[in-house]
Amino acid sequence: MNFLEERIARDGVVKPGNVLKVDSFLNHQMDVALLDQIGLEFHRRFAHAPITKVLTIESSGIAIAYPVARAFGVPLVCAKKSKSINLDGDLYTARVPSFTHGKVNTVIVTKKYLTHDDHVLIVDDFLANGCALQGLISIVESAEATVEGLGIAIEKGFQDGGHRIRNLGYHLESLAIVEAMDPVTGAITFRSQD
Ligand code: 5GP
């Protein structure tokens, strides 16, 4: 098991409805040393790519994407989920159904922060059905920028998002792929990724 799989096995909590709770270390209370390690690992996996921006979606993607952007030394762009008075000018938008909240969000990026010469690494905490990633991909495509790859902390391999994104031909790296999880026993099985 790698460092993230070990932590999930120790502190992850399986909830009914295919939800894995990692809020003691990843998205409520955050283990910043673990997040730094995640940033360095994505930097290692995408070191060949000419990344100019890291793109994520608020809010739980931010903690993962920050150390990644830091490791590459590039700006982090965070897609917003609602139009606030602080967003002005021309906007890229995409409609994204939320796995955890059961509603559809419009995600928004101000046009000046993504341009056609950008090479983008998309980062998020979880991959389930792939709606968040597909929304972010469509925003990068609207900007005529290049998707260099996608970095996910935890992919739930029993949902079809990973399959769909890989079938579209994108380079997707997931640090941990959960193959199965049982809300009764709490058991979590990982896909081997040698
Ligand atoms: P997707 O769009 O791939 O269906 O879902 C991905 C998004 O839903 C992620 O941005 C993540 O915030 C949230 N998500 C999906 N599954 C889980 C889960 O099992 N646990 C947590 N904490 N978040 C999840």
Explain what the structure shows.
The protein is an alpha/beta fold and 194 residues long. The chain has one domain: 3-Layer(aba) Sandwich (Rossmann fold), CATH 3.40.50. Helix content is 28%, strand content 32%. The chain is built from five helices and ten strands, in the order αββαβαββββαβαββ. Strands 4-3-7-8-9-10 form a six-stranded mixed β-sheet, with helices on both faces. Strands 1-2 form a two-stranded antiparallel ribbon. α2 crosses α3. The longest helix is centred in the N-terminal third of the chain and has 14 residues. The radius of gyration is 16 Å and the shape is globular. The N and C termini lie close together (10 Å). Bound molecules: guanosine-5'-monophosphate (5GP).
Biggest pleated-sheet summary: 6 strands, mixed
> Bound small molecules, which ones?
guanosine-5'-monophosphate
From the N-terminal CA to the C-terminal CA, the straight-line distance is: 10 Å
Structural class: alpha/beta
CATH classification class: Alpha Beta
Mass-distribution shape:
globular
**So how many helices?**
5
Topology-level CATH name: Rossmann fold
- Unreliable stretches covering 5 or more consecutive residues: none
User: From N to C, what is the helix and strand string?
Assistant: HEEHEHEEEEHEHEE
Radius of gyration over all CA atoms, rounded? 16 Å
Number of domains: 1
**Mean pLDDT across all amino acids:** 95
The second-level CATH architecture is: 3-Layer(aba) Sandwich
Q: Give me the side-by-side strand order of the main sheet.
A: 4-3-7-8-9-10
Percentage of β-strand residues: 25-35%
Number of strands: 10
Helix content class: 25-40%
